[in-house]
Amino acid sequence: MQRHISEMIPDRWIETSVVRSDGKKEFRERPAFGNAHVVFENNSDWGWEHYDEYNALDFPSGTVDHLAKYTKEKTGIPQTIAGGVIVLGGLILGAKLLQYLEK
Fold first, then answer.
1. From the CB of residue 24, how many other CB atoms can be counted at a distance below 10 Å?
2. Which of 17, 25, 68, 94 is the most buried (most CB within 10 A)?
3. 28: helix, coil or strand?
4. Which residue ranges make up each domain of the chain?
């Protein structure tokens, strides 16, 4: 389904273009509304809506599951292993951050 850029209202959509490396605009649906995201080609007012199995904005489980599935698609690493590594990495980073903040 095509969507117009004027439909990307902040109450429903969050712009996630910053995580893209191709310069395209991307908006993700807030978890309360579903799992859709819309990608707009450069300088286009119309974008295509896609649905993900997991909503990357549904933190923490949706974020981990989405990243693990993406890792599997790109590298072939099983989703369960990728998810475990992501969680472990998050715990290590969280512990380091807490140590830093205690100083």
1. 14
2. 68
3. strand
4. 2-51, 61-102
